[in-house]
Give the backbone structure.
Amino acid sequence: MLKIKIKTIFLIFVLALGAQSKSFAQNIPGSFADLAEKLMPSVVNISTTTVITTQSNPFPFEFPPGSPFEDMFKEFGTPQERQSSALGSGFIIDEEGIVVTNNHVIQDAKDIIIRVNGNKEYKAKVLGADPLSDIAVLKLETNEKFIPVKFGDSDKARIGDWVIAIGNPFGLGGTVTSGIISARNRSIGLSRYEDYIQTDASINQGNSGGPLFDMNGDVIGINTAILGRNGSIGIGFSIPSNSAKLVIDQLIKFGETKRGWLGVRIQDVTKEIADVEKLDKPRGALVASVAENSPSDKAGVKAGDIILEFNGEKIDEMKQLPIIVARTEVGKKVEVKIWRNKKEIIKIITLGRLETSEDFKVAEKKEELEEIEIKELKIKIREITKEDIKQRNLPNQTSGLVITKIDSNSPLVNSIEVNSIILEAQKKKIRKVNDLIQVVKQVLNSNQKTILLVIYNSQNQRRYIGVKLD
C-alpha cells in the first residue's frame, strides 16, 4: 500500500514538472520567419565614404636610410587624398525616410548611401548627430514613402527575453540573428552615458546602428558595440530605446542635444565612506567638487555631499546620476535629496544645459596628445584614442600605440610606416608606452636582439613584423 502511495506521489510530481516545463517551452518561438519578413523592409544598409589625406613619395624609388638625399627630397612629397569606405546599419522610424544609426557609422562621412530593402539606393543627409551617446539621425533624399518601425519600452525588457538583430554585418545585408538579453545596465567605457543592453545575438562589424527587436517587432535597442577583435563571441551591446529616443527626438527637433546639467564632479560612495558618513550602506553619488556659478553651486550643494535621490529617482550607484540628469529637461526645477553631516536634506536645483556649460567646453577640447620618443627604436609614439578607433573603424576594444614619426635611421624605417598602430611586442599586448619600453629593454638585453611586433598598418591590415635591433 505504501509503495502504491509513493508511486502515486512520484507520478504527480513528474506530471507537475512536465506541465511546468511545457509552459516554459511554449514561450520559445517556433520560428522568427514571420517577424523577420515583416521587419526587413525597415532595416537599411549604410555605406559611407570619407577622405583620408596621406603624404606620397613623388619618386618611383626610395633613398637608403641615412642617405643625404633623403632629407633633401623628403619635402617634395605632396599630400594625396584617398577615399575610404565603411559599412553600417540603420532603421527607418518615419515614413518620410528618417533613419537612425550610430554616430560612429557616419562620422566625418563625405557621402552617405543608404540601401533600402536590399535593392534601392538613396543619398542621405545628416539631421543631427551626438557623439556622447553615439546616435545619429539621417534623412533619405527622396519623396518616396517607407515602412517605419516603432520603439518599444526598453525598461520592460528582462534578462532572458528573446530578441533578434537585423543588420549589415561585413556587408552581408539583410542578416537576421537571434538570442536573448544577457544582461542590463552594462557600462564598458566607450561613452559618457552608458546603460547598455547586453545580448548574445550575433553582432559583428557592420551591425553598428542596426536595431535590436523584441518579439513584438518593436525596437528596444540600437546595436553599438561588440567584444572580440575578430568578430562576434556572443557579447554585444545595444543602446536602450528609452534612452535613445530622448536623444533622437532632440536631434530631429533641434539638430542637437539639450541635456540637463548639475555642475558637479562625482565619485563612487565606498563602504569606508559610507561608514564614516554614517550612511546605512554604500549608495548615492559623492560630490567631489562643484563648478563655480553652476546650478548646484547656486543651490548650495557642497563638496562632500552625497546625492541620494534626484527628481524622485533613487541613486543606487554613482553612474546612474549622469544618465538621469542628462535626460531631464533643461530649466526644470528638481528636488535633490542629499546626505550631509549624517542627515538628509533637500535642495531645489534649476537645471542648466550641459552643451553650453564651461565644464562641457573644457571637456570637449581635444587633449594635446603627448608624443613619447622611443630612442632605441628611433620613433615617436602616442597612445591610441577613441577618436582614432572611430575614424579608422577599428574594433572597439583596440589598444596600442600610434607611430607618429620614424627617423631615417630607425630600424623600423623599411618595415613600418607612420600611423601604424603597434598592438603587440614579443607576443605581449601593448596598452601603454611603458609596456613597449619594457619589452624593448628585454630584447636589447637578450642575445637575439630581434623584436616581433604585431601592427595595424595605415590600411588597418594586421601584420607581423620582425625587426633586428642594434
